[in-house]
Design brief:
The protein is mainly beta. Helix content is 8%, strand content 31%. It contains 3 helices and 13 strands. The strands form 2 sheets. Strands 2, 4, 5, 6, 7, 10, 11 and 12 form an 8-stranded mixed β-sheet that branches. The protein has a 5-stranded antiparallel β-sheet with strand order 3-1-8-9-13, with no helix packed on it.
């Protein structure tokens, strides 16, 4: 599962890193405690130009076939399992032609109390739940922005009258895969992180070719690092760079 992540990078840096030629106009502040149902930047291919664009979508995917927003509140569809994206009714169509990259500087995961974690020292303090949060990033060799494999979809709200204008909600989900050796000391799952060399293949909208399921594999442990972080990150109202500091 990936239920929280963080992003320090601004729009310009994200656009440059992912070679996005089109960027949304809304302001984008750093976010150190990203949770489902919030609006976050994703990278996808423009249907019209075929170029990469950065769009602002809601985390927690509402599939195109939903009859109402109440069916999918975003709290159960913020993650998609790599093992089922090709066959699940919710994920099957987006996996064919609506794939995206989710820019992140890192993500959080929680370990059970007193669990052995390869990150190093045991925490000085723990949350009231007894679960210690950790921040996972790329190491110095590949540091900076990472790209989660994602899916997106567009849902049209049913009209109450013929006079109403069409209202669309675009939303996304993060694909998770089995944990690598490093992450398995904390949890059994992790986001599917894509190497830059695989971004073009992942974003390709040509559904005449098989969807690249082979890219949904655990990232290399030696290219990642795990560090203790602030237990306050468990509350979505807490935000700021102090979330990355162990208490």
């Amino acid at each position: 599962m990936c239920g929280r992540y963080f992003r320090r990078s601004d729009k310009q840096h994200i656009a440059e890193r992912f070679h996005a030629s089109k960027v949304f106009e809304d302001p984008l502040a750093a976010d150190y405690n990203i949770a489902p149902t919030t609006y976050q930047p994703v990278i996808r291919l423009s249907r019209d130009s075929g170029e990469r664009e950065m769009a602002l979508l809601r985390w927690g995917m509402v599939p195109f076939f939903a009859t109402s927003l109440k069916e999918f509140k975003g709290m159960t569809t913020f993650n998609a399992r790599a093992e089922s994206v090709a066959n699940s009714a919710t994920w099957r169509e987006p996996f064919k032609r609506r794939r995206c990259l989710i820019p992140a500087d890192g993500f959080y995961e929680w370990a059970e109390k007193n669990g052995e974690v390869r990150a190093g020292a045991r925490p000085k303090t723990q949350s009231k739940s007894g679960r210690q949060p950790y921040a996972i990033t790329l190491n110095a060799g590949g540091g900076g922005l990472m790209a989660f494999a994602g899916l997106w979809d567009a849902w049209k709200e049913p009209k109450k009258s013929p006079q109403e204008v069409d209202r669309w909600l675009q939303s996304f989900a993060i694909i998770t895969t089995e944990a690598n050796e490093l992450m398995s000391t904390i949890y059994t799952r992790m986001p599917a992180i894509l190497h830059a060399r695989d971004w073009e293949e992942w974003l390709d909208r040509d559904d005449s070719r098989p969807a690249p399921a082979h890219l949904l594999r655990p990232y290399e442990s030696e290219e990642m690092k795990v560090e203790l972080c602030n237990t306050a990150v468990g509350n979505v109202r807490n935000n700021g760079p102090e979330m990355l500091n162990s208490a």
